[in-house]
Predict the 3D structure of the following.
Amino acid sequence: MKNKIISISIFLLIITTALPVSSNIINNTQLFEQQNKLSDDQSFDQIIEFLMRRGHFPSISACIIKNDQVVWSKGYGFSDKEEGIMATENTVYQIASVTKTVTGTALMQLYDQGLFNLDDNVNDYLPFILINPNFPEHSITFRMLLSHSSSLRNNMEYWDVDFTVEGPPFLGYPDPWLEDYLVPGGNLYEPSVWNDKYSPGERSVYANINFDLIAYLVELISGEPFYEYCEKHIFDPLDMENTSFRLTDFNSEQVALPYFWNPFTKKHETNENFVFNHYPAGGLFTTVSDLAHFMIAQMNGGVYNGKRILNESTVEEMHKIQPPGNKYSFYFGLAWLIMSRSVWIGLEYPFFFLYYFSRALFSGHGGDISYGLHTRMNMKLSKDVAVIFFINTHRIQRKGWNCAELLNDLLFLKSYSFGRVNKNIYPFDLVSGYINDFSDTLSFNLIRNKIITNTFFINFLEKSSYMFPLLKN
């Protein structure tokens, strides 16, 4: 009984610490002092290294973009532990589902050329009939594929594919694989690939297969193999010299090895990098430095270094919440996910609580590969700040998930140390809307409190007195 009372008291303390009570509203001087601590590279590095230890991350490569330029980038840890190769901002990682933003951009470039309309039926462009057999009267459009509202679903059969150490082209992919997989009567068809509850356009449900179709449509409409199209129309104009869908385009020492953290043996298990058939949905290899060029183009209305890859109005459409507008922990844009500020309280699974404010603030994408990768790319919708980071292990366990969330927040907080600072005002870009009124100040404090709360209990559990320098008074 006594232990139960102690447990309840600890839980109440967690919640109380993170609640937005008036005593937690920090003033301008405190904000300025926190920014100064984040500006100190040694202190910031200590925070990153602590998250790496706690999350079991062998390496992190990260960068911060502000006002259309990279203002900070760095690598931490080992991209190859066995060979002792250190990670840098130029280390190549497979970026998993962040790839979808590139695949969507390729299709939207063809939209800019007037070659289709977003609400066109894709059957006008495909060599086979794409229809949900549960709702045969409903058409499937380009917009639906891009916003995951096509009524397609992930199923286990999707990953019954070849994994190689080379790259595209793949024999039989995308044609005739897509037809065999999606059309009733096909050799690979399983009814579970189609939603039997929601018709096309009725609800967005995340499914990788949408982006296999998008890449196929790029090939059909442009007349170019998808991977070659991306090299010519995206990677080359954006000076993305260390980016490719083909693993053989890199030397082995350039590419971070994926590691699986085994919670039972408490050790990392080394895996190899692979290329798989569904590369348009998650198979791109790149660096944070290269991907920053792509993000700058998105932040700058489709232009990077004087080169335009998308019309400004098209970029705006991609980062808008798309119909039907349903929400999970995010909304769906066109190949992008639209997110609000989150509040995360608690320890690790299953003791956690997550709350999302209704106002959308960020557009981005994350990616995970279970054998050893997590990636993230987010920008503020005001388009003045963005962060990118790659980790060469998974975040399946709650520890890894929580530390990745904290890393994302810390990079955004670090971004405010670049640029004009004035002790008499908030040390943030007021135009951006991140902190421009009481509610936004409250949001900032909730972020701060979740760092404090989780750091305290991490240290409590580890019986350590170490605290983030950021949080010391």
